[in-house]
Design brief:
Blueprint: E1 2-6, H1 10-26, E2 35-39, H2 45-53, E3 61-68, H3 74-93, E4 97-104, H4 107-113, E5 114-116, E6 119-120, H5 121-139
Parallel strand pairs: 1-2, 1-3, 3-4
Antiparallel strand pairs: 5-6
Helix pairs in contact: 1-5, 2-3
């Protein structure tokens, strides 16, 4: 299992990363089979995911990032590029590449989704990866 995490907004992304890893371990994924890498920001997540997806020993990739709305349209461009890029990697390599990227209006909203009142989206991303692998195995 590949895991690529954005270093931008580390208070959020590292909490999601840690929760994703803990969830995978709780479901029997051995730590040696979790290949963790980081990238500078959300824009770099698709290429980081592609570096992992092209490896034969990687069955799925989870991307984790956080983009918080600012005063400019930068948010829109980064979110769009990130989502489209991650989708393309998944289709190119025929592997689950999971979009675990928060796109929130405020830091508070991000905190609520990285272990706050809305749970931890890192766990949801890890669960989605495992479900997609099960589905791939049942239709292969």
């Amino acid at each position: 299992m590949g895991l690529v995490v954005s270093d931008w907004n580390p208070e959020i992304t590292f909490a999601m990363r840690d929760a994703a890893i803990a969830f995978m371990k709780s479901k029997g994924v051995q730590e040696k089979n979790i290949h963790l890498h980081s990238v500078p920001g959300a824009f770099e997540l698709p290429l980081g995911a592609q570096f992992l997806a092209q490896q034969k020993n990687i069955d799925a990739v989870i991307t984790i990032g956080c983009v918080i709305q600012g005063e400019t349209r930068h948010f829109d461009f980064i979110c769009n590029a990130c989502a489209n890029g991650i989708t393309q990697v998944s289709l190119k390599y025929n592997k689950p590449v999971i979009f675990g990227v928060l796109t929130t209006n405020t830091l508070q909203q991000a905190k609520e989704r990285a272990g706050g009142k809305f749970g931890n989206k890192g766990v949801e991303a890890a669960e989605t990866a495992l479900k997609m692998l099960l589905m791939k195995g049942s239709v292969a």
